[in-house]
């Protein structure tokens, strides 16, 4: 049953490599390498999902494969269209594809296609949304960036510690080496799942805010053009960790389920254009943009989002020409990450050292007046033992 999905996957990879080589990418190779495990997909009507038990057919004359899921599927069994069995990061996973209807709203509460909001994507702020009437939303992604940095530091430390265990060229690795690599794959997979969950939370925050504002059109600036520009080793690493394509796909999927249209436009020059007088200004180094022509001052990402909203195709009404003083909503993405609190400073950093050495012990309230203090007749413990 799953042979069709394997052949389709192989065919897509082959023709994609052929098209890229024809376009001039000579470094691309055809998929000729043997793989021990291949993802297999079963389509609707070939599998049975009952609670947390998934029944998958195998070869003719062989008993079916029963997979016990770790948690129940959050979709109705009738909406599941396909399941895919894959091995990723040292774990056996099930990828479920379901058909979900578009959300229905009461009369007068549905998103209005004529209400447009601009969305600016970034690293520090994954989503900066500017809506009509000056309403704005800022989603902070500093916890996601800290997760990337901590994972990179842990990976370097782990590689230095296990460098001596690596086998020589042409030799098989030891049992300890295989266990070390398996542990590394588990840690890397856990970090990827954490970041992906944080991106889902950030996109859900944007869609929920847009539904509250009855925004029916999201004009998103597409920054994928910066990926082709070399900007140094460190900045290129930040761009790769940004995951622009995944962020756009997550936002588009959630907007489609909410009944909101998404338009991708060119975002070039939006961070260096004043949203009030439309004149070019130097791009600020910080988060505050100031215009010397009209004395405008505001958040750089929100100013870019207001400029992106004016590029909506189709002639839909956009934000006003000037920047009204609306309400700016701040949200944080990645609250589920380890040791992330509501403080602005990353709580995973060590607290600064104080001049006092040692621990001060548990703080106790000062005794009130009129309460007798313990006298010298009380029991005292010292190095020689208890005395009276």
From TrEMBL:
<feature type="compositionally biased region" description="Basic and acidic residues">
    <location>
        <begin position="151"/>
        <end position="167"/>
    </location>
</feature>
<feature type="region of interest" description="Disordered">
    <location>
        <begin position="151"/>
        <end position="182"/>
    </location>
</feature>
<comment type="similarity">
    <text>In the C-terminal section; belongs to the transposase 35 family.</text>
</comment>
<dbReference type="InterPro" id="IPR010095">
    <property type="entry name" value="Cas12f1-like_TNB"/>
</dbReference>
<dbReference type="GO" id="GO:0004519">
    <property type="term" value="F:endonuclease activity"/>
</dbReference>
<protein>
    <submittedName>
        <fullName>RNA-guided endonuclease InsQ/TnpB family protein</fullName>
    </submittedName>
</protein>
<keyword id="KW-0238">DNA-binding</keyword>
<dbReference type="Pfam" id="PF07282">
    <property type="entry name" value="Cas12f1-like_TNB"/>
</dbReference>
<dbReference type="Pfam" id="PF01385">
    <property type="entry name" value="OrfB_IS605"/>
</dbReference>
<feature type="compositionally biased region" description="Basic residues">
    <location>
        <begin position="172"/>
        <end position="182"/>
    </location>
</feature>
<keyword id="KW-0255">Endonuclease</keyword>
<feature type="domain" description="Cas12f1-like TNB">
    <location>
        <begin position="246"/>
        <end position="308"/>
    </location>
</feature>
<feature type="region of interest" description="Disordered">
    <location>
        <begin position="334"/>
        <end position="388"/>
    </location>
</feature>
<feature type="domain" description="Probable transposase IS891/IS1136/IS1341">
    <location>
        <begin position="109"/>
        <end position="225"/>
    </location>
</feature>
<keyword id="KW-0540">Nuclease</keyword>
<dbReference type="InterPro" id="IPR001959">
    <property type="entry name" value="Transposase"/>
</dbReference>
<keyword id="KW-0233">DNA recombination</keyword>
<keyword id="KW-0378">Hydrolase</keyword>
<keyword id="KW-0815">Transposition</keyword>
